[in-house]
Amino acid sequence: MRKKIIVLGCGLVGRAIAEDLAKDHNVKVVDISQQNLKRLGQGIDIELANLNELEDFSAMLKDFDLVVGAVPGYMGFETLKKIIEAGNNVVDISFFPEDPFELDELAKKKNVTAIMDCGVAPGIDNILLGYHSKNMEVEKFVCYVGGLPLHPKPPYNYKAPFSPIDVLEEYTRPARIVIDGKEVVKEALSEPEIIDFGKAGKLEAFNTDGLRSLIKTMPSIPNMIEKTLRYPGHISLMQNLKDGGFLSSETISVNGKNTSAMELTASILFPQWKLEEEEQEFTVMRVIIEGVENEENVRYEYNLYDEYDNETKVHSMARTTGYTCTAAANMVLSGGYNKIGISPPEYLGFEKANMEFMIEYLEERGVVLRKKVVE
Fold first, then answer.
1. How far apart are CA 218 and CA 346, in angstroms?
2. Are 178 and 217 in contact (CB under 8 A)?
3. Rounded to whole angstroms, how far apart are CA atoms 115 and 347?
4. How confident is residue 213, by pLDDT bands cut at 50, 70 and 90?
5. If you average pLDDT over residues 207-231, what whole number do you get?
6. What is the pLDDT of residue 160?
7. How many C-beta neighbours within 10 Å does residue 105 have?
8. SS3 category, 72
9. Contact (Cβ atoms closer than 8 angstroms) between residue 348 and residue 358
10. Is the CB of residue 358 less than 8 Å from the CB of residue 127?
11. Of 138, 133, 141, whose CA–CA distance to 178 is shortest?
12. End-to-end CA gap in the chain
């Protein structure tokens, strides 16, 4: 039976989400950009609106079975709060910096299922860890992940599939990792290492604050770390900007107008980092889970490599992030997942059926996780 879904946000990923869900459901998309909305395929309802100006989402959302949040990170928390206050089930990919569990009590009060951080990473990696945590004593979790242009151009050798300011914040936000059972805070961009990822080549990995909910939900795992991947040399360029104050969030005055160095830098970088409509790019991820299972030491390694789809014209980051989100959306719509409250993606992985559904759903769309087991 076709359900009614509303997608808030029609950027690169929001569009992929809407078009995938529209195959089986009735979909409406809301965005502030007419240009973004015009890119949608046929059969999808659209509405031009500034979500920041809406204090109450109840009227807009009242007839929908599910909401998908795909807005920029800076407005993600407040948008999710308004969705929950309206009493709608929601799957969200906005990756906001605030603590989502601050909304858990509200979600339970409103009888709402709210899945957050449901993308590639955080997202798929959390689901894998959630599954294995129920079947073994996990001692170490590592995730390497990045989205990069297939044909890099100097000096940055990078294109941003998300808002550039969201990317820059990854380079400044302190990175929380877990070492020997203790939360440790490292500087973003720190502890670089060069790793060979096969088809993706040699990439540099560095600390970012990617563990997010896992720090709270997986307290028994003594060692956890997430690192972002870029082409070699990118770290030093970003570190120079950081050291020079170009990534500061403090307010400055430019020709009588207040802004921040971060916003100014983002506006300068945006034309250079903008991912073009049919520009080829790829997503690479490696998830390592080590521990004891059936009294034996075991190491699970999952590798993902996915490229821009020339046939559907959907970018890889939109595919890997968006289809993870749409898989979770279908779980909620079918009743396969109905936990009330805030659910990070690792909660989905606690049930084997959910993990298997996710992997099969992604494979049907050409997003393949390759599993290797070392005992």
1. 9
2. no
3. 9
4. very high
5. 97
6. 87
7. 11
8. coil
9. yes
10. yes
11. 141
12. 44
Residue 286 has pLDDT above 80, yes or no: yes
Q: What is the DSSP string of 126-171?
A: HHHHHHHHTTSEEEEEEEEEEEEESS--TTT---BSS-HHHHHHHT
pLDDT in tens, 115-124: 999 999 999 9
* Max CA pair span of the chain: 67
Confidence of residue 270 (pLDDT cuts 50, 70, 90): confident
Place of tokens 């089930």: 89
111 CA to centre of own chain: 25
Tokens 């997003």 found at: 367
Helical pair 12-21 and 316-334, crossing angle rounded to 10 deg:
40
- DSSP string for 217-258: H-TT-S-EEEEEEE-TTHHHHHHHHHHTTTT--SEEEETTEE
Nearest to 144 by CA among 224, 239, 233: 224
Q: What was the pLDDT predicted at 374?
A: 82
Amino acid at 227: K
